[in-house]
């Protein structure tokens, strides 16, 4: 028995597959624009950002912990 694997692109097979926004040209352009803007803001306002960082650091830590620690809860569906 011989198995033949066709690796050619099949438009019918990819019809239901949607690309995420970040994998589109517009998404990549947005990421690039935000990265360049972030670097420019950092270079121009570094002293201001570092001066305010101690005030916002606890808030950022709490938000980060909340975001990353709730990933294991099954999307909010609790079993009883």
Automatic annotation (TrEMBL):
It comes from Dongia mobilis. This is DUF2933 family protein. The keyword Transmembrane helix applies. Keywords: Membrane, Transmembrane, Transmembrane helix. The lineage of its organism: Bacteria, Pseudomonadati, Pseudomonadota, Alphaproteobacteria, Rhodospirillales. The keyword Transmembrane helix applies. The chain crosses the membrane at residues 21-43, 49-68.
